[in-house]
Structures are given as structure tokens and as C-alpha cells.
């Protein structure tokens, strides 16, 4: 069925699904950043570097093991490796800086981003890398009489699962409730005998695990290379800002807005497709400067 010129309902639906699958990657990464912002009040610019490390670790593991098994092992272990890196950074560096001004934290995490980028270059080099998805996730299937990549469909399943699990953790587990309480009044949580320092460490590691997971998930769809952290961290901070600082559901809404506008930008005006999501950000901030949903700050 033709809708506009040569566009059909199937074509529009296909671009919508591509935008949603891109939004799922953005959400997984951004939800980790938002969680750290909400609990620790740390604007972690190095979050993108941890995403990049997750992609490179996934490459190394998948190529070392090979086959379909290599991909799944990489998907499981990459976030763990990133989490260990985050734990070392948090216990040795971040835990001494939580009371500092946000500008100081921004400068510190920016420096950490540069250090991690150089370490990645030393360890993996500057070459482009690639990962193959499992055989049964390659190719495409027909949705609305239009081909749609199987791996993108996999991402559409993973995104909501991560959202539900993160919501269950935050609202239904003891540790999640303690983390939320520490975000509101860390002194009171410490006064009742809870080690707030380790609560913060756990929250930081969990947020960084999500960055590593995002890097591993995106690796079959893009080139794994130096600099991939720069784009994602800029997009992640914009999404967190328009969604509401520290609000997980705001991160989801912002990711959907960003991913869908980018996809339809490619459809309607491909030369300037990158402009569409940023234009949407400008419109949202003019309409509601504090973000679409309530900020926890």
C-alpha cells in the first residue's frame, strides 16, 4: 500500500523497527549511565569508554572461542570484565571523589576516558574489528512484507528484558531499595549501619555492566574501533538530559525518541539524517527544560 510517493506502509514499518532496535542499544547503555547519575550523582563521561571496552572484549572472546558459542560466551563475559574494570576504578579512585563538585567529577571522568582510550589502543591497536552474529541470527525475515534483520529483532527482545530486570532490581530487591534510599539521603542510610561506600560501589559496577553489555550487543552491527565511545557518550548524555536525570524510564523514552527520529531521518532526508535526533532534543528541551519525566536530582 503506497502512502507517500514511493513509500509504503511496509517501508515505514521497517524503518520504525530499525529505529526501535537502535533505541534498545541506546537504552541499555543509557540506563546504566542514568542509574549511576541517579544513585551516585556522578556524570561519568568514561561510561562510553567502558562501552567500547565491552565491544573489544567481546571481539577477543568470540574470536578466541569461535562459532556460535563464542558469541554467547562473549555476551556473558564482556559485561563481567567491564564490571571488574569499573570495580577497580571505583574502589581506587571514585570512592574518594563523591563529595566533590560536579565540575571536578566531569574533569576526572574525562581524564579517565582518555586514559582508557589509550589503554584500548595499546592492547588492541587501531585496526577495525568485526564480530559475526550466530548463524541463526544472521540474514533477515519478512515483517509486513519487508525484510528485517534477525539480529535487530533479537535486540528488540533484549531491550525490554533489560528494562524489566532493572525495574525489578530497583523496586523489588533489598539492594535496589537501599540504593534508591542512598540516592535520596546517604547520611541516613549510613546512620542505620549500612555501608554506603559498598552500596555506591555496587551501583557503579551495575551501571558499568550495562555499558559493557551494550558494547557486546552492538559489536555485530558496527565496526569495533577506537572512537566508538565518543559518539555513544554524547548521545547517552543527551538522552539522559531529555528523559530526566537519573530516571530509568526517562532513559527509555529518550532512547526511543532518539532512535526513531534517526531512523526516519535516514528515510526522509538521508544527507542530514544525523540532524533529526538532535533537532528532537532541542524541541524537547525548549518545551520542557527539566526533561520529559521527573528528574531524581
Describe the structure.
It is a single chain. The protein is mostly helical. It is built from 11 helices and 4 strands. The chain has one domain (2-227, 267-272). The strands form 2 sheets. A two-stranded antiparallel sheet has the order 1-2. A two-stranded antiparallel ribbon has the order 3-4. A hairpin with a 2-residue loop joins strand 3 (140-143) and strand 4. It is globular. The termini are far apart. The model is unreliable at 1-5 (pLDDT under 50).
Short description:
The chain is 72% helix and 4% strand. The protein is mainly alpha-helical.
* Beta-strand fraction estimate: under 5%
pLDDT averaged residue by residue: 85
Low-confidence stretches: 1-5
Domain unit count:
1
With strands numbered from the N-terminus, the spatial order across the biggest sheet is 1-2
Record field, number of beta strands: 4
SSE order: EEHHHHEEHHHHHHH
Fraction of residues in H or I helices: over 70%
Helix count equals 11
Compute the CA-based radius of gyration.
19 Å
Name the overall outline: globular
Profile the largest sheet. 2 strands, antiparallel
- Broad structural category: mainly alpha
- Measure the end-to-end span: 48 Å
Q: Topology of this protein?
A:
Elements: E1 2-4, E2 7-8, H1 9-40, H2 47-65, H3 67-92, H4 102-124, E3 140-143, E4 146-149, H5 150-172, H6 174-184, H7 186-191, H8 196-218, H9 228-243, H10 248-268, H11 275-287
Antiparallel strand pairs: 1-2, 3-4
Helix pairs in contact: 1-5, 1-8, 1-9, 1-10, 2-3, 2-4, 2-8, 2-9, 3-8, 5-6, 6-8, 9-10, 9-11, 10-11
